[in-house]
Amino acid sequence: MPSLPDMTTPNLTALASQALADSGHVAVPAPDAGQPEFVEFLQRLGDNCLILGHRVSEWCGHAPALEEDIALANQALDLIGQCQLWLGLAGEVEGRGRDADALAYLRDAGAFRNLLLVELPNGDFGVTLMRQFLFDAFHIELLRALKASADSRVADIAAKAEKEVAYHLERSADLVIRLGDGSDESRRRMQAALTKLWSYTGEMFVDDAVDQAMSDAGIAPLPSSLKAAWDKTVAAVLDEATLAAPAEAWQHGVRNPGGKKGVHTEHLGYILAEMQFLQRAYPGARW
Amino acid sequence: MYAQLVKSEGSKSREDMTPEEIAFQDRIDRNEKIEPKEWMPEGYRKTLIRQIGQHAHSEIVGQLPEGNWITRAPTLERKAILLAKVQDEAGHGLYLYCAAETLGVSRDELLEKLHSGNMKYSSIFNYPTLTWADMGAVGWLVDGAAIMNQVPLQRTSYGPYSRAMIRICKEESFHQRQGYDIMMKMCAGTPEQKAMAQDALNRFWYPALMMFGPSDKDSVHSAQSMAWKIKMNTNDELRQKFVDQTVPQAEYLGLTIPDPDLKWNEEKGGYDFSEPDWTEFFAVIAGNGPCNAERLGARVKAWEDGAWFRDGLMAHAAKADERARAARHAAE
Questions:
Q1: Which of B72, B90, B319 lies closest to A73 in CB terms?
Q2: Does pLDDT of B125 surpass 70?
Q3: Nearest one of B281, B153, B167 to B225, comparing CA atoms
Q4: How distant is the Cα of B330 from the closest Cα of chain A, in angstroms?
């Protein structure tokens, strides 16, 4: 029996029940089977953490100061941990026998649901920090709202993640301020990072049918409802950092489908080629 | 061993010592710890800076061979474990640079010497990590060899170094276990995985033996360091201990140590084994290992690319100070 369902096997359901039978556990039918929107929503949460965690982990050993190396590794660890919880729950709700690893390692880019922002390349350290700040300011509002989710599993994960993300935001906001209001060079780089990334912030607040279904079920807030709080945080930090967001910018993934719909930048394919290499090259092996 | 070929002063006989030096040596002989502000011979201070600095450099350069596989780790759990492990290495670097700072040398000065090639790091990190099994082999063998050296250094005479080693050893033993756990998983896996594990052992065995430094007969710097309890065991003693410990672990995995002359010697109660190729060792130390240019290049690039970041933070701190001063003035 392979350790992970093989996506090339046409009959996944049969493989999953086979795996369950072989595992010696009592097979309990998943109560949530048939909730595709919920699965989709959980994958969005998990994929944001997975892909951003991956990007941040790319810095390991290459950061501009030893303290930054340690801090970034912490952040990547938090995000990978959160991804395990969200994708684990996604697999459970889906009820097809896929666990977090199967979802992370055996889906192709079109099945990933992360925001475009988190898959963008690290760039210089300024781009990495600014990307983190813009996402953290959104992430924290989302998690705060999810703590009141009608689904207690979601509320529990959100409560745990919120503590970690509050620290991520404290750190990224602090560095954005210090580097924005730092030297001429650091200010120039932070402004360039902000200008470059701004076009990827709109996607965070787009509501679609999945979001509407989650909101109707009391599981999650509408993304658009988080925008006012995000605007406030971002405006305050940018002001102190002496940086200015572009007045008008095209927003990717707003009018056109973006990462939430599985339409990604070219970058995601390379992330997955790297991340999934061993699982793809040695199908079914246990590590 | 993360510090190899550390240059020390020639040892002095008691008759040649000044009264201060005699008193210092007596403290060491009574196993007293030497603390930062206390008097110490200049040679002791310099040798410690070289050794602790080299050790610190080894920790941060040592992030790179394993960092090489973080983005390709085969499961989320393995990715998290490896990331945490490499993060620990950065933390070890930090403790050690701090320990060196107590001897009057700044982290920036030490890094400048690393980047300019005037200070070394352990030869082991100049070997490539080619497969996932190398993550297992590095944890098992490289961290295993490091522990062999660092456990006795917990009792070293310099207080801050000794305390750093106590913290580091706790983490290193987890590192070795995680490496061995990867090896166990691979040896119990598919034939391809087992072949990968054997290949990793083949490539890392002799470089791991080299970590302890040259054979005692060629090790010119040991006597004074041992008298000062900066070095607690000879290179050959530690190497022998490492081989004796590791061979049964390889047997348990069903792997073969790549040494046809490896044989249990009942009389000495240890294994006889082949020496590593010392010509290769000196070539790697001199900069000609397979990854010397990449490893040092990556560290130099990280430092240079990060200059604007560090300068920006300093500029902000200066502005904040200036504003605080102006606010105080206005209030007066």
A1: B90
A2: yes
A3: B153
A4: 21
Of A162, A35, A8, A9, give the one whose Cα is nearest residue A91: A35
Helix (H, G, I), strand (E, B) or coil at B73: coil
Burial of B296 (0-12, 13-18, 19+ CB in 10 A): buried
Dump pLDDT digits (tens) for A262-277. 999 999 999 999 999 9
Measured distance CA(B155)–CA(B165) in Å, rounded: 9
Taking Cα atoms as reference points, which of B148, B159, B140 lies closest to residue B232?
B148
Characterize the bridge pairing of strands B263-265 and B270-272. antiparallel
How high is the pLDDT of residue B12? 80
Say if the Cβ atoms of A61 and B192 lie within 8 Å.
Answer: no
Among A73, A189, A278, beta carbon nearest to B74: A278
Tell me the count of A-B CB pairs closer than 8 A.
Answer: 150
Burial of B141 (0-12, 13-18, 19+ CB in 10 A): buried
Tokens coding A161: 């993640």
Across the interface, whether the CB atoms of B298 and A61 are under 8 A apart is answered yes
Of residues A130, A277, A279, A151, the one with CA closest to residue A213: A151
Extract the tokens encoding A192: 């360039």
Pick the CATH number of A34-280 from 1.20.1260.10, 3.90.1490.10, 1.20.1250.20, 3.10.20.600: 1.20.1260.10
Could you give the C-alpha distances from A148 to A99, A156, A157, B53, in angstroms and in order? 25, 9, 11, 51
Q: Which residues of B touch A183 (CB under 8 A)?
A: 308, 311-312, 314-316
Interface of A with B in 235-274 (CB under 8 A): 274
- How confident is the prediction for chain B on average, in pLDDT? 95
Q: Do A80 and B80 touch (CB under 8 A)?
A: yes
Q: Scanning every residue of chain A, which has its alpha carbon at the shortest distance from the alpha carbon of B183?
A: A287
Kindly state the DSSP code that residue A24 receives in the 8-state scheme: T
pLDDT at A9: 40
Q: What is the rounded end-to-end Cα distance, in angstroms, of chain B?
A: 59
Whether residue B158 contacts residue B34, with contact meaning beta carbons closer than 8 Å, is answered with yes
Q: Report CA-CA distances (Å) from A37 to A143, A207, A212, A223, A248.
A: 18, 13, 9, 15, 33
Scanning A69-128 for CB atoms below 8 A from B yields 69-70, 73-74, 76-77, 80-81, 83-84, 100-101, 104-105, 124-126
Model confidence at A18, pLDDT cuts 50, 70, 90, reads: low
Average predicted confidence (pLDDT) for chain A: 91
Cβ–Cβ below 8 Å for B76 and A83: yes
Inter-chain contact B76–A101, Cβ cutoff 8 Å?
yes
> What is the pTM for the complete model shown?
0.92
Decide if pLDDT at A85 tops 60: yes
* B20-67 pLDDT, tens digit each: 999 999 999 999 999 999 999 999 999 999 999 999 999 999 999 999
The gap from C-alpha A55 to its chain's centroid, in whole angstroms, comes to 11
Strand, helix or coil for residue A8 = coil
In chain A, where the domains are located: 34-280
